[in-house]
Amino acid sequence: MLSFNNVAKVAIALAMTMSLSGCFLTKIVTMPMRVVGATVSVVGAVVSVVPVAGNKVDAALEKVDGTIDTAADTVDTALPL
Fold it and tell me: What mean pLDDT is predicted for residues 5-27?
């Protein structure tokens, strides 16, 4: 059964979550997305040193990075928090 302490902890966590600003919450969601995108971009820059195939790989990874940034921007602007 639920004890008073568990209910109190859940209530406090819920109150704290509700008091956070929407901007902060979206940054928590989009920051990991942007880190992955930046990592992909760096990998593409390193791979682009390889002749012939490197430039194609770099272009593909840059496209992935752009897609991740677009998705993160959408989350930042679309969430009505």
Answer: 74
